[in-house]
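Long-time lurker, finally posting.

We've been working with Na(+)/H(+) antiporter NhaP (Methylobacterium hispanicum) and I want a structural starting point before designing mutants. I don't trust myself to interpret raw outputs, so I'm hoping someone here can both generate the structure tokens and explain anything notable. Sequence follows.
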Amino acid sequence: MISIFDLAALLLTLSALFGWLNHRFLRLPHTIGLLVMGLLASLALVGLDLAFPRQHLYEDLTQVLRQVDFTDVVMNGMLAFLLFAGAMSLDLRALRDRAWAVATLALVGTVISTAIVGGAFWFAADALGQPVPLAWALVFGALISPTDPVAVLATLKNVRVPEALEVEMQGEALFNDGIGIVLFTVLVAFAAGSGGEATSAGGVARLLLQEAGGGLVLGVATGYVAYRAMRAIDDFPVEVLITLALVAGTYALAQKLHFSGPLAVVAAGLLVGDRAPRDAMSEETQGYVSSLWTLIDEVLNSVLFLLIGLEVLVLRFEAGGLVLAACAVPIVLAARLAAVSTPLLAFRWGGNLSARNVPFLTWAGVRGGISVALALSVPESDAKPAILAATYAVVLFTIVVQGSTLGMVARRTLKDMPGRDAA
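Top reply, 14 upvotes:
Generated this for you. Predicted structure of Na(+)/H(+) antiporter NhaP:
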């Protein structure tokens, strides 16, 4: 049994080492490079264990990694700080201009994708002779449908797209988690046979209002209190500390009140990021706050993507489920295409959605650590191994393949759009 400090030291050391190796030799985008190197190291360790079984290298490192509760680390640790960092950098006024497009993609798109992925995954599993109950297939649809805000924001750092489209993508990724987690919670309760009132139409509406509405209200309230506190002083150490306390306190309080923690910190980050630089922070304070949250974002992203790569050591995949996992990749891509196309066709009169964006938005639907964390939290059942394998396959494909080729897709599909910088 090793200490939390030893675990943190191991992960930070591996992140720094793999980051240096990637920068020197692979030259992949930083987060993608860390994931790839973590995955390659895991596979190499598995190979060494098969070649030299008496050394117990695989078993020793696996025991260390099993002490890292991936779901708890992501959902109750890293996520709050990463979402706040992303929300702080988003232009709130630009987001208001794209509010209809963002809301449509986050709400309608997530629901459509959940239904399509669930139905197609259930059919594919049955056709391959590895049946998964429809209820559990829909659970997979709910956890894999929302685009991951951490992965999307990390990917966008390496791609230049028109500002309006970038705001759409950032806004969708930051807000659709609340919708996805509510759907996931309801569908897990239904699949596990403990749904009760929570799975009725009224129960779902109440849960959505409580989780999403309560989280947004709480975030606005705590964000405003923090903004007023920062406005009353001019002392950068205290103001930096206020932003840290805002994130941790808001997320913890949201969980106690059964509100959406992710939506709460996003709302708080948007408010502070918009108002504080204008009249609550000096230029010196802005520099320190910006540097701190950029550093937090980079370090936590590095550790998270490394963990995703190393998780292959801990997860147990059945050989028979790998074909179904491979089928999940085109299923999720097709569902993403439908999710971004249907709102365009249904609400063409809105004027804020463009058909030219569909190919790029489809390919930019990156999934990441949140999907893996939700999959690991699924109750034990016969369907869980298939859900885990499919989730991991989709996450790896979207981050490594889609993430690394998104710049090329942007150059080919967005080249005639106004306001686009040369890539």
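Before you design anything, note these points.
The mean pLDDT is 86.
Residues 78 and 248 are 10 Å apart (CA to CA).
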